[in-house]
Amino acid sequence: MRERYHPGAGSQLITPRAESGSRLLLSGEISLTSGSVNPVRTVWQDEPLCLGLKIIIIEAGELRCRFPYQQEQHIKGPALCAIWCQDQAEASQCFLPGEGLHYTAVHLSTNSLSAHLCPGAMERLAAGLQLDLSARPKIHIQAAPKCLQGLRAQLFTSPLQGITRQLYMTGKALEIVAHTLDSLLIPDADAMKTIPRLRAGDIARLHEVKALLAERLDAPPSINEISALVGLNTRKLTAGFRRLFDDSIYGYLQTLRLETAWRMLSTGEANVSSVAYQVGYSPAHFSVAFRKKYGIAPKDMRG
Predict the structure, then answer these.
(1) % of the chain surpassing 70 pLDDT
(2) CATH number, domain at 113?
(3) Taking CA atoms, which of 45, 107, 187, 210 is between 20 and 30 Å from 249?
(4) Is 237 inside any structural domain?
(5) Of 209 and 14, which is predicted with more confidence?
(6) Of the residues 138, 164, 184, which one is the last residue of a structural domain?
(7) Span 149-167, average pLDDT
(8) Whole-number mean pLDDT of the chain?
(9) Does residue 208 contact residue 230 with C-beta atoms inside 8 Å?
């Protein structure tokens, strides 16, 4: 792991351009940014979203945010923002003159999340953020817990240097992620063990979930929407699906998408880009996921 500092360089909230700050790349999959913005006038900026999960602690200051598929948001510190994005997308932000905006952001790539989160955590994250299971981006805003405000204060005060500093910063970044997810996730696997035994009606509804996902492969509903459609609360829905099918809803959806894509490509039904969109991926994201599962690029399926 290498540290890279860029004093005064641009950093982002959604992706903010900081007038002062520093950026620490903990690895290729995790980045930590801290800085401040002191606008003199109100100007809207369009910025690309980072792929994966981005957590921002806003200590002070305020801004407005226009996010895809959501109403305009007014964010005022101290606040916690969690941003989820799996595809190429943009958002707009406007920093408001007055009190300077001070922030810290931790970004985890999609690959890092898949590699380090326990089974089912991605699904619980989707429920906590009320995500679509598609690539549609989402921002969640809430008051910043005091523990996160304290962690932000600790980040750049350590006297450690070199590898020990890298380890310290990595730990603090992941601690921020842990506390954020704790405030977002629905009950974990230990809590799910207390769910009553599945009845015949529950099992029938869980089979309906499979059919629903197959019908809406390109734009699947969120966990909360599935819950309403089949008549099961989110706790019983997610735990029951895993108990019955030995997989999370999110995991099953990804497998179904890629298996459907394999069949379509092997029979020559459509080109790679068309197949990607039909199973709910962008072409770039599809290629990465397909190669990871099958060991070959989608284009190689067509000879």
Answers:
(1) 79
(2) 2.60.120.280
(3) 107
(4) yes
(5) 209
(6) 184
(7) 78
(8) 78
(9) yes
Which tokens sit at 7?
């004093």
If asked whether residues 26 and 156 sit together in one domain, one would say yes
Verify that 150 and 275 share a domain, yes or no.
no
How distant is the alpha carbon of residue 88 from its chain centre?
13
What are 179-206's pLDDT values in tens digits?
Answer: 887 777 654 444 445 555 778 888 889 9
DSSP 144: P
Residue-number span of the structural domain to which 214 is assigned: 190-302
For tokens 């979930």, what's the residue? 209
Cβ-based neighbour number of residue 263 at 10 Å: 11
Q: Which amino acid is at 161?
A: Q
Whether pTM > 0.85 for this model: the answer is no
* Preceding amide of 78 cis, omega within 30: yes
Q: 34 has which bridge partners?
A: 22, 104
The Cβ-side half-sphere exposure at 272, using a 13 Å CA radius, reads 18
Q: Which residues are within 8 A (CB) of 205 and not within 5 positions of it... i.e. 6 or more apart?
A: 230, 231, 232
Counting Cα atoms < 13 Å in the Cβ hemisphere of 201 gives: 4
The amino acid sitting at 189 is A
With bands split at pLDDT 50, 70 and 90, how would you rate the model's confidence at 85? confident
Indicate whether 3 belongs to any domain: no
Which of 149, 184, 219 is the C-terminal boundary of a domain?
Answer: 184
Do 201 and 226 fall within a single domain?
A: yes
Tokens of 235: 């706790």
Token reading at 66 = 């226009």
- Mean local confidence (pLDDT), 43-56: 86
